[in-house]
Specification:
about 260 residues; mainly alpha
Length: about 260
């Protein structure tokens, strides 16, 4: 499937790349919209429901652009090929960050959020993951190749944009501060690493299903606890890196398994 990925991205040109950058720049305004909504609503279930609707609506924009340009949805990783396998891999990898988070939560005595918040967080994270993965992994990442004609440069640029996109909302919400540089640097590294790992998985199977499921589990593994601190985020990162390592080993094993056996 990696060969299919290379064949797919090689057909895009600079016009596709600049269109993707413009669409992404517009969609980055989304956090500002959600913050405006927050200023007018208490952080209740109604607020979270409105935010989910906003993210769901904005997720359709890159899809409409793709269809308008007569490109297939499969070009951004939305297809049914190997659906069961992609779903199974996503669920399997998800046990790693969730498992690490649960073990650390038990060891440190963290308090889990109550039931109604638990499921509302899960639903919110699901819609956020769909939005971010469609926009940055499936759409922007593939089209950037038309500008740079280099996979590594394209991935690093998209990872940088993905990281910087989170900073303004974090500053306004009070989760980030330019005074606390170590925390800010860790968060940027965290988002940068997330994008690279998700794209690595995407390049392998050219499907967003596995990426979305893993993305939801990683975010939820840190938000399922009452105290969202740096330690919990660190364990989420360790879980993600562990899942990435297992993915690499899994992919290598299947690559060797598919190689023809040579007679001695």
């Amino acid at each position: 499937m990696k060969l299919y990925y290379k064949q797919e991205v090689s057909q895009y040109n600079k016009k596709d790349a600049f269109t993707a950058l413009l669409v992404t720049a517009f969609l980055i305004l989304l956090p500002a919209i959600t913050l405006i909504v927050r200023l007018n609503f208490e952080p209740s279930n109604l607020y979270r429901f409105i935010v989910m609707l906003i993210y769901a609506g904005f997720s359709l924009i890159p899809i409409m652009v793709v269809l308008r340009k007569k490109q297939k949805l499969a070009s951004i990783g939305l297809h049914r090929n190997n659906l069961m396998r992609a779903t199974g891999l996503g669920i399997g990898f998800s046990f790693i960050p969730l498992g690490i988070s649960i073990i650390m939560g038990i060891m440190h005595g963290w308090e889990i959020v109550n039931v109604d918040v638990f499921f509302m967080f899960l639903a919110s994270i699901f819609f956020f993951a769909i939005f971010e993965d469609i926009v940055f992994v499936g759409y922007l990442q593939t089209r950037l190749y038309g500008l740079f004609k280099n996979s590594i440069v394209s991935i690093l640029v998209a990872a940088l944009i993905f990281s910087l996109m989170h900073i303004p909302s974090g500053l306004i919400m009070g989760n980030l501060s330019f005074v606390d540089i170590p925390t800010l640097a860790f968060r940027v590294f965290w988002w940068f690493s997330m994008h690279i790992i998700f794209v690595t998985i995407f390049r392998r199977y050219f499907s967003l299903i596995t990426v979305i499921i893993l993305h939801v589990s990683v975010n939820f593994s840190s938000m399922m606890w009452v105290a969202h601190n740096g330690l919990i985020a660190s364990y989420s990162l360790y879980g993600l890196l562990a899942a990435a390592g297992i993915f690499v080993l899994y992919a290598h094993y299947h690559e060797k398994k598919r190689m023809p056996h040579h007679n001695k």
